[in-house]
Specification:
By secondary structure, this protein is mainly alpha-helical. Helices cover 50% and strands 6% of the residues. It has two domains: 47 residues, Arc Repressor Mutant, subunit A (Orthogonal Bundle), CATH 1.10.10; 57 residues. The protein is built from six helices and two strands; from the N terminus they run ααααααββ.
């Protein structure tokens, strides 16, 4: 029963529930090395969970900080002002605008995702704010 696989970049934290089961089985006498095989986790994880439980620390996974946004609040405000001012500008032109004005280099995909998060959409060759009733 291997729950996590893949490279470090895409691994998810093991649930608190699984961590508690691991600790319980080790406390009931299962060897740590056997627990690694049964639960599909590393020996260092088993040791860490058992130690945390012994020290009465939480077994809850820690919140991991995500990547910092490439475009900050100021950049977003400038981008929205540009959208109002130049509704027909392309993604490529928006990207160049951010590079020139905000001094940040991003891909057109990043600009596209940001516009989507800001609720802007391209309709008939122009950018428009998505209305509350649609979408």
């Amino acid at each position: 029963m291997i729950l996590n696989h893949g490279h470090h970049g895409c691994m998810r934290a093991y649930s608190e529930d699984l961590r508690k089961k691991i600790v319980k089985t080790v406390e009931q006498g299962m060897k740590k090395s056997e627990a690694t095989r049964v639960f599909g986790v590393s020996l260092s994880s088993v040791k860490r969970y058992v130690r945390a439980a012994h020290e009465r620390r939480s077994l809850r996974p820690k919140k991991r900080p995500g990547m910092r946004p490439k475009i900050d609040e100021n950049g977003r405000r400038l981008l929205e002002a540009d959208l109002e001012e130049r509704p027909a500008a392309t993604l490529s032109e928006r990207r160049e605008f951010l590079e020139r004005v905000v001094r940040v280099t991003v891909s057109e995909s990043t600009v596209s995702r940001l516009l989507k998060r800001l609720r802007w959409t391209r309709k008939k060759g122009r950018w428009a704010l998505v209305s509350e009733t649609s979408g």
